[in-house]
């Protein structure tokens, strides 16, 4: 069997510190010595979407990708199947780096066509997903090296010294889970990973009918609702909090101005949640919402502009037949 390496680029307790910081920043009302001012409770509560993905959350996400309403995974797979040979020809990649690789399921289509590939570097925060996917891949592909990285792709990445050309892929539309300023910083950091001859492959979900978008994030079977609420069980387990997931409703709304879907958890009553690890009590008003994810949808001109701002040229643009999803390639 070919080699499988797993590298944790961050110490284990970094995850814990990052979760604490995110929960504190997103849920705590800033309070001075005096009583809470009326305006303070108006600060919208937020949690970043990366905390969905513990082992259970990663499983739920895999279930989402199979839902009839959740089209992005199927649309992107359709493009990959149709275009993998062109991507291989345009890049000649010997190293494939995949940011936020998850189960690496769609990547197989790319791996099939990248005939000169030396090493696959999946990067993800989920150790369970990396190990499962990596072990399965090396068992199937005797000539492939897999060097998995447990890392947060939004931080500066230290990549293993593998042969070029390097193809960095960021699929699934996950770039849409970053806020605009985070996207700018992320694309700039991707650019620093690329040398002449390297390339960047980006998956973006596209703006479409509101009813189609909302259904994709509020499925009839309730899997997305369970996925959304899973972030509360993660905070319960990691920080000893006492969130009752049943005390919140799943909400998915389209923001037509920002062109993104927001997932929120809406408090069903006035309640106070204790978070002992942070010595924190968080008040929720009846109906108060906690934003857990934005999922931005794109247009070609916007993608081109954001890539250009990072010094990347849009060299190829492919969509599925129905024009729901796009893959962009930038060859440096
Ligand atoms: C594939 C991770 C980008 O925003 O569509 C799915 C995550 N959230 N359903 C997306 C997700 C709710 C997803 N990403």
UniProtKB/TrEMBL annotation:
Chain residues that bind S-adenosyl-L-methionine: 100, 106, 124, 152-153
Annotated keywords: Methyltransferase, S-adenosyl-L-methionine, Transferase
Gene: egtD
Catalytic activity: L-histidine + 3 S-adenosyl-L-methionine = hercynine + 3 S-adenosyl-L-homocysteine + 3 H(+)
UniProt-recorded Gene Ontology molecular function terms: L-histidine N(alpha)-methyltransferase activity; protein methyltransferase activity
PANTHER family to which the protein is assigned, alphabetical: ERGOTHIONEINE BIOSYNTHESIS PROTEIN 1
Name assigned to this protein: Histidine N-alpha-methyltransferase
Keyword Methyltransferase among record annotations: yes
């Amino acid at each position: 069997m070919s080699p499988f390496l797993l590298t944790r680029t961050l110490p284990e307790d970094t995850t814990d510190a990052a979760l604490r910081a995110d929960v504190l920043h997103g849920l705590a009302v800033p309070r001075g010595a005096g009583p809470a001012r009326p305006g303070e409770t108006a600060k919208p509560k937020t949690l970043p979407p990366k905390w969905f993905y513990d082992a259970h959350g990663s499983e739920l996400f895999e279930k989402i990708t199979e839902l009839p309403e959740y089209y992005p995974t199927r649309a992107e797979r359709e493009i990959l199947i149709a275009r993998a040979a062109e991507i291989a020809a345009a890049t000649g990649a010997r190293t494939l780096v995949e940011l936020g690789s998850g189960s690496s399921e769609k990547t197989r289509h790319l791996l099939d066509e990248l005939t000169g590939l030396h090493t696959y570097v999946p990067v993800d925060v989920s150790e369970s997903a990396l190990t499962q996917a990596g072990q399965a891949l090396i068992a199937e592909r005797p000539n492939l090296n897999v060097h998995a990285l447990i890392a947060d792709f939004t931080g500066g990445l230290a990549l293993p010294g593998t042969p070029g050309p390097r193809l960095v892929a960021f699929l699934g539309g996950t770039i849409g889970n970053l806020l605009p300023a985070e996207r700018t910083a992320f694309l700039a950091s991707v650019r620093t990973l690329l040398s002449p001859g390297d390339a960047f492959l980006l998956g973006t979900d596209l703006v479409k009918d509101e009813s189609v978008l909302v259904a994709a994030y509020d499925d009839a079977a309730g899997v997305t609702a369970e996925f959304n609420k899973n972030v509360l069980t993660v905070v319960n387990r990691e920080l000893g909090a006492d969130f009752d997931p049943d005390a919140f409703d799943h909400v998915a709304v389209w923001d037509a101005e920002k062109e993104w879907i927001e997932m929120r958890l809406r408090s069903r009553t006035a309640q106070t949640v204790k978070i002992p690890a942070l010595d924190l009590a968080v008040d929720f008003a009846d109906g108060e919402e906690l934003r857990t994810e934005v999922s931005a949808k794109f247009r070609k001109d916007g993608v081109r502009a954001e890539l250009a701002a990072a010094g990347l040229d849009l060299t190829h643009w492919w969509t599925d037949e129905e024009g729901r999803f796009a893959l962009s390639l930038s060859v440096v």
